[in-house]
Amino acid sequence: MKILVINPNASVEMSDVIRDQLRAVARADVEVDVVNPVGAPPAIESAQDEAQAIPPMLELVRSAEGRGFDAVVIACFSDPGLDAAREAARIPVVGIQESAMHLAAQLGHRFAVLTTLDRRVPVRERAALLAGLERRLAACPVLDLPVLETVVDRDRVTERLIRAGRTAIEQHGAEVLILGCAGLGDLAPRVQRALGVPVVDPNAAALKLAETLVDLGLSHSKARMYKGRGAGGETRERRDESMPPIPLSTLVPRP
User: Is residue 108 part of a domain?
Assistant: First the structure.
């Protein structure tokens, strides 16, 4: 089995951390390839960063099956372009945020996402809402840590995670913690030992889900949502020929 893991930012250092971590947890018969798309933003910390990251990431997704991969993991906690990637591929495509939230919901009644920056909290809340897990999300404690700093000075990063996790447990009733950035995943065992509650590494959660989907012969349904334009025999450009074009004069205000 071959799984393509796409880190959709340009940080080679983060990809190295993700690669070492996932190769340690992957099954012996699973080959894990971690890559950065050409033209990716330095980090993904905003909606504009996500928009910049998606086109080069989709190029890798489209070519993955032809290159012999059995599944794709998008290793950014915002799951940028996940729906588009599922449209573009027949093989399973999983995002680390969605995978981690659904796994956390199996481990306790309420979970918290330890989030890098305050402006990303609404993104986490929206993701929980779309996943149907908004009532299970206890809190999103903020680390005040830019994405690229997650893979440097790991002792300092671990201390912030433990402090934020303790707040989530003691003040918000969280029973499970999720590390809300791909660069944090390998620190889950340290945080779990310190706090005594399950701590979900989103990278590993997504990788193991991808392995399971391949083992079970499952991928995303193309019946409706992930069918995509051009799928199922439809043409890429389609309109009702019985409707005449709208005259330009009706669209331009007259002086």
Answer: yes
